[in-house]
Amino acid sequence: MGFSTKNTYFRFGPHVKEARARHQPIVALETVVVAFGLPQPANLQVAHEMEEAVRAEGAVPATIGLLDGQVVIGLTPAELERFAGDEHVRKVSRRDLPIVLARRQIGATTVAATAWAAARVGIRVVATGGIGGVHRGAPFDVSNDLPTLATEPVVVVCSGAKAILDLQATREWLETYGVPILGWGTETLPAFYSASSGLPVDARVDSAEEIARIAGIHWALGGKGILVTVPPPAPVAVPLDRLEGVVREALEEAERRGIRGWAVTPFLLARVAERTGGESVQVNHALLVENARIAARIARALEALSQEP
Ligand code: PSU
Ligand code: MN
């Protein structure tokens, strides 16, 4: 027997099926942030608000997750709810895909697994909060989000990499693998909770149309991922040094408790949320919705560009 490449491993939600038939712009959204990145009940609320933000900009949201042995592209509201409160949900990065599919478990997709799935079905834009990256003090711990950006032709809209990471090393990694980093109305890389890390982006961009043009050329030249970084909304953003103490304490605690692998990021986010009395959750919430909105505008601009003669 051969291993068939005929794809029975994907299933489209009804709204995404319709959007594809009508050539409407689509934005892929991840589910790890719902299952592991935010506390209840904010998680489900944010997931809905992200979908609404995409719709308000004239695009269609495709929230992605694994159910019953398939990658679902466009979870229904009832399906999405399962990701917000089921203790059996697994965090799925690319290495976990075949395992969770074979076992027909419920799996929330990271940025890596979401971007990978999006690329398989021709969706070119993904929105998230902060991507994974190179961990501080553990340069061998590199999120699969980075190599996925190096191999999949997608625009990932985020507020930089999470502040718990080594941002300079993350930036260098992306440079090595040819991933352009664009700043939405900014010259410097945002730092998730904060407007700026002080590190430069590769180019400041001020419109979705310009991003679409850059992406179109990148792909025509054989390039793959592009990172669009959006500063967190000003009213909720916190100064860079404000949360640094809390982040350091959380990192030390993770080390002391021997937290490793996939569990590191959810642990750190939860600790920072606790120690800031929910302030970090408020910023995370606002930036996720904003990033979804901008991703929708980029998806629309890409769709318009693809229709040019
Ligand atoms: N953005 C957020 N919160 C999150 C994430 C992104 O605002 O929790 C998730 C994404 O799914 C991303 C993952 O892929 O964190 C990174 O995890 P790791 O460092 O284990 O690769
Ligand atoms: Mn890791």
Characterize this entry briefly:
The protein is of the alpha/beta class.
Q: What characteristics describe this protein?
A:
binds pseudouridine-5'-monophosphate, 13 strands, binds manganese (II) ion, 44% helix, 309 residues, globular, eleven-stranded mixed beta sheet, single chain, alpha/beta, two-stranded antiparallel ribbon, Indigoidine synthase fold
Query: Which small compounds were modeled alongside the protein?
Result: pseudouridine-5'-monophosphate, manganese (II) ion
Spans of at least 5 consecutive residues whose pLDDT stays below 50 are: none
Task: Tell me what the CATH architecture is.
Answer: 3-Layer(aba) Sandwich
Mean pLDDT: 95
Structure description:
The protein is of the alpha/beta class and 309 residues long. It has a single domain, classed as Indigoidine synthase fold (3-Layer(aba) Sandwich). Helices cover 44% and strands 16% of the residues. The chain is built from twelve helices and 13 strands. Strands 1, 2, 3, 4, 5, 6, 7, 10, 11, 12 and 13 form an eleven-stranded mixed β-sheet that branches. A hairpin with a 2-residue loop joins strand 3 and strand 4. Helix 3 (42-56) runs parallel beside helix 12 and helix 10 crosses helix 11 (264-275). The longest helix is centred in the last third of the chain and has 28 residues, at 279-306. It starts with 9 loop residues before the first strand and ends with a helix. The model has no long low-confidence stretch (mean pLDDT 95). The site of pseudouridine-5'-monophosphate has 20 residues, from helix 2, helix 6, helix 11 and helix 12.
